[in-house]
Amino acid sequence: MTHLECARCGARADASKIANLCPACSGPYLVRYDLERMRTSTPKSVLYGRQASLWRYRELLPVQDHENIVSLGEPNTPLYEVPVLGDKLGMHRLSVKDEGLLPTGSFKARGAAVGVTRAGELGVTTIALPTAGNAGAAWAAYGARAGIGVVVAMPASTPDVIQRETASYGARVYLVDGSISDAGALIKQACAEHGWYDASTLKEPYRIEGKKTMGFELAEQQRWELPDVIVYPTGGGVGLIGMWKAFEELRALGWIGQKRPRFIAVQAAGCAPIVKAFHAEKEESEAWPDPTTFAAGLRVPKPLGDFLVLRILRESSGTAIDVSDERTRDMMRLAGTTEGLCLCPEGAAGFEGAYQLRQMGFIGEHEDVVVFNTGSGLKYAESLQGLPPVHLERGQAIPRIERQLEEPFDGHRPLVVEDDRLRVAPDEE
């Protein structure tokens, strides 16, 4: 690590001091490294024999002393094909990167592990952040591990299990009527009044450094050949930005070639500021009024890094698409019954977005497509669907089942275009 650089205006800042947003333009800072030096001194072989953890990429992580690492044993997450689901969706090379197997059950553990580690090195004693759910739980867990106090503000509509999980790690949790933007306003005020460290999305430079390890892992798992398409459920978009940054760093080191995957940002129809801005050819999004979706991680009305997400989508020849909650629920069930995959709503939205783009021809039948499932569906237990349990009276035997399996549910109806937007065709009846 050499310095911090504003993603908007390019101004530099000292990485040895606490830094939030750029004072010149309020843009987020990105961490920069001496990649030229690393190119000659750090071959890929340094990874051989290292533990299968995000910390295996430590030369490209912002840690001064590796004795300070805060870890909950976060593993590399699996990347595997889902051929039955892929066949139903019309894609023969469909894979999932399942982030639900990380500590606290979501990809937020990556950002929290690196963010809390760096906060501890900078002498932080109290961290505060707003959250739509999973980030608060992750930062609370890693904060507890590090002995750093954590204050979390979250919308009152956040799933109850996530509220309880966050509190169980000792964080002080505050529920807010409104969206994550309302929670963010309260955290901003509290940090100004109490001198707390503001760990809001992209308001500190180190969460993204943890998230970018998704890109490192994906490249390594694919033998340093990137896929054709990466489908990413996008709320704040930090993971998408992080992976783009990771691939740029790997190219600079000569570890991967020049191939650039097409990034696809998937949002909920009830909160789609990136989708609207992308198709309107805007450089930034407008705040989405009254965001509504059961996919809590997608309920972000105005991402701070929207200009970066939009830039990446265009530079990668990607796109953005929104999907309805109804079809997201259908996809959760379809993935469970065909592949035993317990998707979170955000991950299911990603698969649904990929399916719709395949129907439109944007994704080819034989392209290598990777969808990120950003968390465990178990954290959204109230949204899980399946065959209803059958209550047996005492002494009653299980009846004979004529077929071993019910025909896997496929809740998809044909797609039609109305008013230049993709719609689900109505039922025949």
Describe this structure in words.
By secondary structure, this protein is α/β, with parallel strands linked by helices. It has a domain at 79-104 and 208-386 and 411-416: 3-Layer(aba) Sandwich (Rossmann fold). It contains 13 helices and 15 strands. The protein has helices at 35-41, 83-89, 108-121, 134-146, 160-168, 180-194, 207-211, 213-221, 238-253, 273-279, 306-315, 325-339, 345-360; strands spanning 3-6, 12-13, 29-32, 79-81, 94-98, 126-130, 149-155, 172-176, 197-198, 229-233, 262-268, 319-323, 369-373, 415-418, 421-424. The strands form four sheets. A six-stranded mixed sheet has the order 4-5-13-10-11-12, with helices on both faces. A four-stranded parallel sheet has the order 8-7-6-9, with helices on both faces. It has a three-stranded antiparallel sheet with strand order 2-1-3, with no helix packed on it. Mean pLDDT is 92; it is low at 413-417 and 419-424.
